[in-house]
Amino acid sequence: MLPNPTLDQLQVFLTVAETGSFSAASRALNRAQSVVSYTIANLEAQLEVPLFERSGARQPKLTEAGKAMLEDARRILGDLQVMRARVKSLREGLEAEVSVAISVMVPSRALVDVLHEFREMFPSVSLSLNVGELGMVMDLVLSGKATIGIGGAVVKQDDSIVTERIGHSFMLPVAAHNHPLAGIGRPLTLGDVREEVQLVVTDASGRTKGRDFNVLSYKTWRVSDIATKHQLIRAGLGWGGLPASVIHDDLTSGTLVHLDLDAYEQGEYPIYSVRQLANPPGPAATWMIDAFRTRLSACPSQVDFHAQIAELQEAGTPLAAE
């Protein structure tokens, strides 16, 4: 007779594998450890293969058969989540509220334009908007505090999260026009910036703990958010990277100067829409994702951005930020 494992057995198996022990799985599932062990034993009996190596180890270790089964279990339970989510979406219809987490890397003009249209399209839908730095967008989605997230910094893949690239952004190293680095008049080296204060945003989510991105100076001042970092750099208290959309006007007016620093990685990086697999967006949230995709896909490349800034500086004509 062919094995016919239940969804409950697969869920217990997946939980034991992910938590690393039968006792941890029993706490996660709120079941007695004996029930968890009995469920796994029944599953192994049905499949006629051992899933865990139990002898000689404090914690159960997956066998080769268990590793193969783990991928199947994840896929089956993932498909079940998709089916449940689809039914929920069909049953509930238009959302009463859309909760959105937005990264500071999303251009403010794109955000304002989307929200203007959103208000016209869905006047009965309430909006909750959270602005997050670095890993906070992912945290807000994972915790359920945000229905969708728009941002980058997908530091770690998660099977419960669906991500889709919808645009790009980039950071530029800058300093105030009267900062020592701005007056060097040649491409900068690491030696030029090592002893200058660099302003760095701390990731409150903890998702990037222990990892620094483009931190090149020995002296760092760490701040909680991009807005504070922006103001301190404008005041000449240090140098650092800022989103291009945030500093568009500052570069045009000459308040800030782009630093020609090869050691600072300035490549474009993607912006994603992020949502929980088990909580698909309704009509209003789906419209919002598409609207952001339309605007963000039209954002200029770095080359075009620099060309635009140079043209505006020559003309002496300030322009609103992208």
From TrEMBL:
Keyword line: DNA-binding, Transcription, Transcription regulation
Name the record gives this protein: LysR family transcriptional regulator
Residue limits of the HTH lysR-type domain?
5-63
Q: Which Pfam families match?
A: HTH_1 (PF00126), LysR_substrate (PF03466)
- This protein's superkingdom? Bacteria
**So what family is this one in?**
Belongs to the LysR transcriptional regulatory family.
Tagged with keyword Transcription:
yes
Q: Which residues form a coiled coil?
A: none
Query: Do you know which Gene3D superfamilies this protein is assigned to?
Result: 3.40.190.290, Winged helix-like DNA-binding domain superfamily/Winged helix DNA-binding domain (1.10.10.10)
- Lineage, please? Bacteria, Pseudomonadati, Pseudomonadota, Alphaproteobacteria, Hyphomicrobiales
